[in-house]
Amino acid sequence: MGKKKAKKQGNAAEQTIRAKFAAANGGFGFAVPLDQKKITQDIFIPPAYTGNAIDGDIVLVRIRKERNGKRFREEDRGPVGEIAEVIEHGKKNIVAQLTGKRSACPMDKHLPEEITVNTLPKGAKTGDWVKLSLLNTGKKRTKNLYAEGTERIGRSGTVAADLKAIAAEFDLQDNAYTEKQNTAAGKLEPLAIKRVRMTKPWTITIDPADAHDFDDAISLAPGKTKEEVLLGVHIADVAAYIQPGSTFDKEAAKRCFSAYIPGMFLPMLPKALTQKMSLREGVDSPAHTILFTVDKKSGKIRKTERFHSVVRIKKRLDYGTVQNFLDDPKSAPVDWTATFKKNLKLLTETVRAIRQNRREQEQFLDMPLPEIRVICDEKTKRITGIQRKEPCEADALVEECMLAANTAVAEELIAKQTPGMFRIHPEPDPEKIDQFAMICMDSFHFSPGDILSSRTACQHFLASIPEGTKKPVILSLFLRSLPRASYQAEPGLHYGLGKEKYAHFTSPIRRYPDLLIHQQLWNLDCNKALKSKKRLAELAETCSLKEENVDNAFFAANDRLKLHFLQENGAMENGTLFEAVISRVTAAGIVCSIDELGLYGFIPRERLRGGDYRRSSVRRQKMVSGTGHNSYKTGDFIYVTLDAIDPVRGTVTFRPAI
Predict the structure, then answer these.
(1) Cα–Cα distance between 368 and 161 in angstroms, integer?
(2) Is the pTM of this model over 0.85?
């Protein structure tokens, strides 16, 4: 009898799996098993079976074989399950708008639209942004989420309060430095080390016009022969100020990255210190230099040297001014001498040759997508417009020099068997690429070919995408099919760049991985103890997570402020027309890309004109009317007008204009 009971319990145990839950916008999700020995595939969780699990939760999943009397076909979607228990919430604190005395609507779209609030923060009223602490209901089966109020953030609906709410949602609110910390940081002086004076070569910085710090510069000087040129990449020597384990090293490690959010800048290092370390015009500055001997014609790098230096910036430039000069040399500012213009032209020609050589040798993936961001004054929090920035040669000029320096440092770390932190971008998942190819063919009547067969095939695909408003949609879909780049303690493939040895070195003022590399090289040069590979692996994981969080905060703020901009300019009342491209069809409606706003909007199925619509199939990505005469499919152009803006969830819905 006892043996039979034990056997029964063993079978029951086999039906449940510990996993991490990943929520999707459609209400469903996937449970990623924590023990890959039991099951290797992700478990699909249908909307009705997610319980009160939220994105990032550690859960207990019960594998199911059928739903509503119909058996699941595992060959179609893999294992299917239901959340039996939430073991631990991955996200402890959330931001929400109070909608009643005991209810709140979360900012995060992955969460249910209503959460029960047991206790309110002091002074909080309906309509306020509040910070909530989620309560764990343990084994109790409920679809409701419960929380306690911990802090009132401010009245929702204003740019200032919304930015504070976003900072709280992404745990960035404590990233600002106090005046006391700024004062202390401003008193730091650089440690002594042997330096090479590099104050005579022609040296410039090129940054955005509104840049907060200046951590990289480029120099040009004649080589030993007429065929060669000396190209210098000079990086602010941050490790001279920030030693491992010091107060501001610990502060930087908490943040990992500077957060560039429209209307809000949260630096990784104190402002007083970044100003002191920045490579400023007309000032002798300590730097960490990578000096390349380059063949001007072929673009091949013949020799690389690394050393600590003192540099002097001849002129601070911005991308717009440089691009104007490249497009029309006559547009050069009046204070640019003939020699200055000659040097800038030679620098451009040299970098073009380096880029062409790299294109041939490494076959990098060229994916030029415009950046569309809100311009918001940091002091007044007033939105002044939406800026569209197309990739240009001025950007590539700086980028190419930084790529060369990053590669050189990675190669040196590997050659000297020095523990480092490397930038990794894995190869795409064949299944995701197949799905992307299917969408391209079905929706855009454009075959990408066998992208994974070779880098040449992938380059050919990117080069052959037809120009026009559909191109950004296709490129965005392709980018979403690629894995996210991350940091690791072991070198590996960077798929996008086509490199096997790559690290981040050129932005130590705003990225902690770069600062770590600077510190490792400083200690290597001074024969001091180095961080171990094990410790760097731990830091790499932290930095990867922090980077993703900061990126998500930027996207959330950028999109939300675009909605403020539309409201403030009366886009809904005026019936403003927007040209859109349908990027995805769901059972509930259509997702469309508004190129001029850099924004995705949703058209509910009931808003479509001409009858009762239904999705024809998941594969075909097509919405067909009940009569069969009208349809909408991925890739179609459509003119839309604003229908509604949800200021809490940060979403926007449209309706067809014609």
Answers:
(1) 34
(2) yes
